């Protein structure tokens, strides 16, 4: 059963205009109109510089704090991000696990209760419709988060696949709802656990990377879904899901903690790139397979059989023979490369394109992510990147660029 936000997404799929789109450097192309998250007024009151992103009005930064300063605060202390624009789903019923597995290449049934996994939604050709975090709850229920910029596509895809599932598996019912009005915040940084612990009696030291729980948080003991992990490469909690009535007051409590500062999308983008994380619409799209996207580890071994997943012919072929292109990390000398910069081999042959690029605040070097022809993807391979009509020296580097500090 769908709730209003997902139903609205289906309507938007049919009615959203394609003209009047804005492009923000480092972010997805977004409509010129935007929806508000449950924390919109809170963000504005805290000096949030609001910009349209993935169909929502989101804070690029706060007050006079620059992106580099905000970025470094997350690396040294703790930062809170409003990620309420992402769509939160609950799947339940006897067929929920098998249904979600039918959409992905990952053996979700092997996850323990309260375990989470990154995975991808596949189209019939083995391309990536979206990336997602899926968390197994007791009694066969699942908490799933998908990207805001793909709400229309994800909802339409899930709706279509669920209709087929119900027809083919009448005895394996699936109930689907979205958590409309819920807040979703991410608390990231080396002091994230220390600070959040001040607001809950739950022993967060027992919660490891990739695990989740329900815990009472704040003076009003708000029951929140909390998942340990992070898009920044730091320790922290990428998902703190807050019921609608408590979204603002609990976020205020968290940001009042001594080491916590509000962080906007600008720093989130540079942090995730240092961590080697993809941004859908830039580093992933429907033409890219998990193998091309350096996400082969999401394709579980017991799914690697003909017909074992959507697009299995292509995915199995690429696993065996190698894909035509591969996602790589790059270090670039001179000026930083931005999305769309062409990549060449040392003989001047065009072999790929940059999908994300920044001057790294942590490393002090220019880093990027992009796709190159198979064979030019090995660590240490010298390449050239076109920046402002000049070819700059580049080298293939392993990702993450900044070592992950997950709590395991």
From TrEMBL:
Keyword list, A-Z: Aminotransferase, Methyltransferase, Mitochondrion, Transferase, Transit peptide
Main location: mitochondrion
Main EC class the enzyme belongs to: transferase
Superkingdom of the source species: Eukaryota
GO BP annotations listed: glycine catabolic process; methylation
Keyword Mitochondrion: yes
Pfam families for the chain: GCV_T (PF01571), GCV_T_C (PF08669)
A GO molecular function held by the record: aminomethyltransferase activity
Binding site for substrate: 238
GO cellular component: glycine cleavage complex; mitochondrion
EC nos: 2.1.2.10
Entry keyword Plastid: no
Domain called GCVT N-terminal: residue spans: 39-302
Family: Belongs to the GcvT family.
Protein name, per record: Aminomethyltransferase
Originating organism: Trichosporon asahii var. asahii (strain CBS 8904)
